[in-house]
Amino acid sequence: MSIKMDNVGQSFPKPDEEGMVCIVDSIDLEINEPSINMLLGPSGCGKSTILKMMGGVRPFGVACPTAGEIFINGEACHGPHNDVVMVFQKYANRPDLSIWDNVAFPLTLSLWKKRIPPQEREERVREMLEAVGLADKAALRPSQLSGGQNQRVALARALVLRPKIILMDEPFGALDAQTREEMQHLLIELQEKHNCIIVFVTHDVEEALLLGDRVIVLSTKPATIAENFEINEPKPRSSIWLGSTYANQQREKILSVLHASTSKDFQ
Fold it and tell me: Mind listing the pLDDT tens digit for each residue in 119-165?
């Protein structure tokens, strides 16, 4: 599976005004192998817009993309793709369903019901609940879980489809530091096990260094790729590693790009 953005741009109508405002400009990006790819940039620069474009989310009444083309596995992306799922900061767990039924929910949709027999659906749900450490919570409701546990449910619901590509929009941003660290380690384990491509939006430099096989640094709006580099270090990475010479070099690279980009806004 692969993602390719070929000179992609996106503009939206100005609210209460004539004309368009450019949010994303001339994005060239290609991801061809299982990896965690961190999409990093200032708040409001267009990270989430890029992620939604990759996921086939198309706003009503607006051409998307405005320029260029997006390809999933070599085919032009004009809408949602069966092998791509999205995970957001808001878990979107249904309060009226048990944890088991929340994880199983995608498999009840007509497309997946036709593809996957009932016994396999049950096996998948059981496997994912065990993988995220919630097998003993299957009968509970989301209101009975902590924020970190609810995010585990959302991750299990995404992975139960065994997607080739997972798009994550600051999924751990609302979690406390300890729970966030636990979820970061869990994500690394699950990505290696399921051999998928993850694109992970963050504005946290430390999170990008801890999780990323690749870090893609965006400029301020309109978003362009200001830096794109690999981190060839084994995972999981620790707080001790964050103090290493290599990590400090990468951190300085990211911060200098972000600073240069932000400074242009005030020139």
Answer: 899 999 999 999 999 999 999 999 999 988 998 999 999 889 889 99
Q: Return d(Cα 131, Cα 135) in angstroms, integer.
A: 8
CB count in 10 Å sphere of residue 258: 22
| Residues 186, 259 share a domain | yes
Task: Answer yes or no: do 65 and 192 share one domain.
Answer: yes
In CATH, what number is assigned to the domain containing residue 66? Answer: 3.40.50.300
Residue 266: per-residue pLDDT: 39
Are 186 and 193 in contact by the 8 Å Cβ rule? The answer is no
Task: Let me know whether 173 and 225 are in one domain.
Answer: yes
Q: Greater confidence, 114 or 257?
A: 257
What letter does residue 172 receive in the DSSP assignment?
A: T
Contacts 24+ apart (CB under 8 A), 128-131: 128/103, 128/156, 128/157, 128/159, 128/160, 129/99, 129/100, 129/103, 129/156, 131/156, 131/159, 131/190, 131/193
Range of the domain at 37: 3-83+164-264
Closest CA to 43 of 169, 228, 183: 169
Please indicate, yes or no, whether the overall pTM of this predicted structure exceeds 0.70: yes
Query: Could you report the per-residue pLDDT of 186-231, keeping only the tens digit for each?
Result: 899 989 998 999 999 998 999 999 999 999 999 988 999 999 999 9
Q: Which residue has the tokens 């609810």?
A: 150
Amino acid identity for residue 85 in this structure: V
